[in-house]
Write a structure and sequence with these properties.
The chain has about 210 residues and is mostly beta strands. Helices cover about 0% and strands about 30% of the residues. It contains no helices and 13 strands. It has a four-stranded antiparallel sheet, with no helix packed on it. It has a four-stranded antiparallel sheet with strand order 7-8-9-10, with no helix packed on it.
């Protein structure tokens, strides 16, 4: 999404860049969704602003046990990442990133870490171009219960992340090159996983256990 020149914020949209005084690069929510009791730093100058330092979000899902919002975003050249959204947290972009400038590979910002800025739960170098995500809570795949699934455009695959709390304990790459660019992932009420591809003749595929 390209920044707009309008001065009135478009609530609920994800924006690029970040300076703390505009909506660019922040995660914004409708005013009614933000509690007045939240302890927020001074840069949260608008009632709808929730976080800072987000780049280009492509997927979001609520954790089935904690209710926390998990998101992933595209990095530049490398540095795609997964984060857990918390009020008042600065997720770093463009000051810190695990990615580099497109094409030339030069450094962006100040490095990969800085005090006061959150580290991602998980990141990918090189990029996989994540798109869509879902927690699996069904019964059809007992070993996958509680795992996080992420589609990938660049490597045309489905990524399964085994979690240990808010840490990724294991990553498994599935269906690489089989279906094409996976745009979205959903866990259906029937316990199956559904994948939507991003192609001229795309497909909606249902993932079933092997017999």
């Amino acid at each position: 999404m390209q920044p707009t020149t309008e001065t009135r914020p478009r609530r609920g949209f994800f924006r690029r860049a970040s300076d703390g005084f505009t909506d660019f690069g922040s995660f914004t929510l409708p005013t009614w969704q933000v509690s007045a009791d939240l302890k927020q730093p001074s840069w949260l100058r608008k009632p709808e602003k929730f976080t800072l330092g987000n780049r280009n979000m492509q997927g979001a899902a609520l954790h089935p046990q904690t209710g926390m919002l998990w998101t992933h975003e595209h990095g530049p050249q490398g540095g795609d990442e997964i984060n857990v959204m918390r009020s008042g947290v600065n997720y770093g972009w463009p000051v810190i990133t695990y990615g580099a400038n497109y094409g030339i590979g030069t450094k962006i910002g100040e490095g990969t870490r800085k005090e006061g800025m959150a580290q991602p739960i998980h990141y990918w170098v090189p990029s996989i171009a994540p798109s869509g995500m879902a927690f699996y809570t069904g019964e059809r795949f007992p070993r996958w219960k509680g795992d996080l699934f992420v589609g990938a455009l660049r490597d045309q695959m489905l990524v399964r992340l085994k979690l240990d709390g808010e840490k990724v304990a294991k990553e498994e790459r599935l269906l690489k090159g089989v279906l094409g660019r996976i745009r979205d992932v959903r866990a259906g009420p029937d316990g199956f996983l559904y994948l939507l591809t991003d192609e001229a003749h795309g497909v909606l595929a249902r993932l079933e256990p092997a017999l």
